[in-house]
């Protein structure tokens, strides 16, 4: 049978982020896959070198739309280590709360995407509806749905009130019931099992060789979780389980993420019920002493590695960010080989490649903040381009 | 009373005795954080020893840093016991060269390609494949993470190039 090569991406309806997968097919079977990444490279590391430590934090927070807290926390942990700051326990607890809510929101988002990729749109809509509970909880605490901006070098910027604790706890409890339902669904529903069992297999030795991280590694039986291995914040004192699976396929990744959500709820209940008292931040000097620090943070997709080097100046000398998706892409070509073309989308989606999510458009007007409707946005856009000499008002909208 | 050695101290001792001075300046900054230095040409041997004898199996990432006279390449290794070991290899900035470690640990491939693209490190023996992360038409010999790289010049050059292309397109449109 002649081999044909099919490009999947960089722009493709099945992928929500730009990445190019050149698939060599023999009939329906993938025999080879070549990856090309970097379409989203924005030079954040270089840009951070021309900003001071606080400005760089806001930049780093925008590396990812989903793990914004993960990146910012990993970065400020480095800054605090260099400054020799003793971060108050309450600040650490608030970071854990946001971090675990972020994990819940990311895993529920993934569950929806994965369900959509296997054609199970009911589950997609269910999980995204329930994700709104997490988004509301995050908004209650931070005022934002995506970029929470809770961190500051030395602690957090906002405290959590007793009332907020009550609201978030109620949401977490409601969510726990829903997650249990998803676990039943994901592990017993015949269509889910049929589309995920034996698909995108990554054996344990390959996962180790390819330095896989996060749920991808844990679903291949590699017990690797920074929260357990190299505890940061309060994770050393919390009671939670490390979820692994020996399934080594997409089903295993689904299983690991589903049960991890339950563990996140468990962590949240512990921290919210026993929130330490005290200050929420300490002062950090504008200039840091020369030195280097490297810290890891278990983001929803796996381990974030941040390296920070200071030469004693106002700006960092070098900031390095390694997001977990890069670690996991090395495994993708292996997983694709030998599988069916129809499964390519779910195999790629199963590592939960990171794409930005912006949920609604809010435009800050001089008078304050106003939420624009679809109609307002359209007329705003038309006016905006009219000033530039382009008239879109004649364009028909269907 | 004998004090029990910490895992970081044991690692330091193993590196000192096992590699006979190839790894220098081993410092334990805090629990789980060990930093060290080495020469660029020794990286492959040290990596092999660490993986075979010391149980390191997880390369977290590789960081390249332009330090003026030298380009330092930092290998961050994770151990099952939680230790994060950083091996800083020093190479001259004028001729920064390293041997690939992808034959020992295939997971290093994207990190090494990043060194090639962003810092202009010559990584020998790297498997064939697409470049990462810069675009295919990025000018040759330019490496953005070098401190000497001029972002303003790059932006001006690309704007000039775009303007030239636009002019040709407009001229062609007139001919129609």
CATH H-level superfamily title of the largest domain in chain B: NADH:ubiquinone oxidoreductase Nqo5 subunit
Strand order of the largest sheet of chain A: 1-2-3
Q: Which protein chains make the most extensive interface, counting residues with beta carbons within 8 Å of the other chain's beta carbons? A: A-B, 34 and 40 residues
What helical percentage do the residues of chain B reach? 25-40%
**What is the arithmetic mean of pLDDT of chain B?**
90
Give the radius of gyration of chain B: 22 Å
Oligomer: heterodimer
Number of strands of chain A: 10
Strand order of the largest sheet of chain B: 1-2-5-4-3
Mean pLDDT of chain A: 88
**H/I helix tally of chain B:** 4
Which percent range fits the helix content of chain A?
40-55%
| CATH fold-type name of the largest domain in chain A | Cytochrome-c3 Hydrogenase, chain B
Percent strand of chain A equals 5-15%
User: In sequence order, what are the helices and strands of chain B, one letter per element?
Assistant: HEEHEEEEHEH
Characterization of the model:
The complex is a heterodimer of chains A (398) and B (176). Chain A is of the alpha+beta class. Chain A is built from 14 helices and ten strands. Chain A has two domains: 44-349, Cytochrome-c3 Hydrogenase, chain B; 361-398, no CATH class. Chain A has helices spanning 44-48, 53-61, 68-83, 89-117, 121-142, 162-188, 190-196, 204-209, 214-218, 226-229, 250-273, 324-336, 344-349, 374-386; strands at residues 4-8, 20-26, 29-36, 151-152, 155-156, 291-299, 302-310, 318-322, 362-365, 368-371. In chain A, strands 1-2-3 form a three-stranded antiparallel sheet. In chain A, a hairpin with a 2-residue loop joins strand 2 (20-26) and strand 3 (29-36). Chain A is globular and about 70 Å long. Mean pLDDT of chain A is 88; it is low at 355-363. By secondary structure, chain B is of the alpha/beta class. Chain B has two domains: 7-145, NADH:ubiquinone oxidoreductase Nqo5 subunit (Beta Polymerase, domain 2, 2-Layer Sandwich); 146-176. In chain B, 34% of the residues lie in helices and 27% in strands. In chain B, the strands form two sheets. Chain B has a five-stranded mixed sheet with strand order 1-2-5-4-3, with helices on one face. Chain B has a two-stranded parallel ribbon with strand order 6-7. Chain B is elongated and about 90 Å long. The model of chain B has no long low-confidence stretch (mean pLDDT 90). The A-B interface holds A 34-38, 41, 43, 45-46, 81, 208-212, 224, 229-231, 292, 294, 296, 303, 305, 307, 309, 317-318, 320, 322, 326-327, 329-330 and B 30, 32-33, 35, 57-61, 63, 65-66, 74, 76, 78, 80-84, 86, 105-111, 118, 129-135, 144-145, 149, 151.
């Amino acid at each position: 049978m002649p081999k044909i090569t099919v490009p999947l991406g960089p722009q493709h309806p099945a992928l929500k982020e730009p990445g190019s997968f050149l698939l060599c097919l023999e009939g329906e079977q993938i025999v080879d896959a070549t990856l090309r990444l970097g379409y989203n490279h924005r030079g954040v590391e270089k840009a951070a070198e021309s900003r001071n430590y606080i400005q760089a934090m806001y930049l780093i927070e925008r590396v990812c739309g989903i793990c914004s807290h993960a990146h910012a926390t990993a970065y400020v942990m480095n800054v605090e280590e260099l400054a020799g700051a003793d971060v108050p326990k309450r600040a650490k607890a608030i970071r854990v709360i946001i971090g675990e809510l972020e994990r819940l929101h990311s895993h529920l988002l993934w569950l929806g995407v994965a369900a959509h990729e296997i054609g199970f749109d009911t589950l997609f809509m269910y999980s995204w509806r329930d994700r709104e509970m997490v988004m509301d909880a995050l908004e209650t605490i931070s005022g934002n749905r995506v970029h929470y901006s809770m961190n500051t070098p030395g602690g957090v910027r906002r405290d959590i009130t007793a009332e907020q604790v009550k609201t978030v706890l109620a949401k977490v409890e409601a969510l726990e019931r829903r997650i249990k339902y998803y676990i039943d669904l994901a592990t017993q529903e015949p269509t889910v099992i049929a589309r995920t069992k034996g698909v995108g297999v990554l054996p344990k030795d390959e996962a180790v060789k390819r330095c896989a991280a996060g749920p991808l590694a844990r679903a291949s039986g590699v017990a690797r979780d920074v929260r357990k291995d190299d505890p940061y914040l309060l994770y050393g004192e919390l009671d939670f389980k490390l979820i692994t699976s020996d399934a080594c396929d997409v089903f295993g990744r689904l299983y690991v993420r589903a049960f991890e959500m339950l563990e996140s709820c468990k962590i949240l209940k512990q921290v919210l019920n026993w929130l330490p008292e005290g200050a929420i931040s300490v002062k950090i000097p504008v200039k840091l002493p020369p030195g280097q620090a490297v810290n890891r943070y278990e983001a929803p997709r796996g381990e974030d590695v941040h390296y920070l080097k200071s030469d004693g100046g106002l700006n960092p000398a070098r900031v390095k960010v390694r997001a977990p998706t890069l670690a996991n892409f090395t495994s993708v070509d292996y997983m694709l080989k030998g599988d069916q073309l129809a499964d390519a989308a779910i195999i790629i989606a199963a590592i939960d490649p990171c794409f930005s999510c912006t949920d609604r458009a809010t435009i800050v007007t001089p008078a304050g903040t106003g939420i624009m409707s679809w109609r307002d946005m359209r007329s705003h856009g038309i006016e905006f381009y009219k000033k530039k000499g382009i008239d879109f008002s004649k364009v028909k909208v269907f | 009373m004998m004090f029990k050695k910490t895992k970081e101290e044991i690692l330091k001792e193993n590196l000192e005795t096992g590699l006979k001075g190839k790894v220098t300046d081993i410092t334990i900054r805090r629990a789980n954080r060990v930093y060290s230095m080495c020469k660029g040409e020794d990286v492959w041997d040290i990596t092999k020893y660490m993986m075979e004898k010391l149980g390191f199996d997880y390369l977290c990432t590789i960081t390249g840093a332009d330090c003026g006279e030298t380009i330092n390449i930092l290998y961050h290794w994770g151990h099952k016991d939680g230790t994060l070991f950083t091996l800083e290899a020093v190479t001259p900035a004028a001729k920064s060269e390293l041997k690939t470690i992808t034959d020992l640990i295939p997971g290093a491939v994207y990190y090494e390609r990043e060194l090639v693209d962003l810092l202009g490190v010559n990584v020998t023996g790297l498997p064939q494949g697409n470049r990462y992360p810069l675009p295919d038409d990025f000018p040759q010999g330019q490496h953005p993470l070098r401190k000497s790289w001029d972002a303003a010049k790059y932006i001006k050059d690309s704007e000039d190039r775009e303007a030239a292309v636009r002019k040709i397109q407009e001229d062609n449109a007139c001919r129609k």
